[in-house]
Predict the 3D structure of the following.
Amino acid sequence: MCIDLCLAAQADTFHAARQKLEAQILEYVEDALTIDKAFADDLLRRKAPLRQRLEYLAIVTMARLHLLRRKLGHAFRTTLPVHVGKDCHA
């Protein structure tokens, strides 16, 4: 989904969906700058509805929190080497 232009594409794989969306964005921008030149400013500033933008923000936030949680979890599982000096009792 392209939130900035309110475009979406669907396919069987992520790679195929991304390719379709990139082609769709390119065609949309080309059409806005050539065929619909009089309306280009409006077309290129078109945003997705607020609800979709908020859903997108929530998904991105959850994904980032998940990555952060994984990184923090790894930090607490890593064993640090400890050197005990002569005057310390282990």
Remarks:
- The chain has a mean pLDDT of 87.
- The CA atoms of residues 79 and 85 lie 19 Å apart.
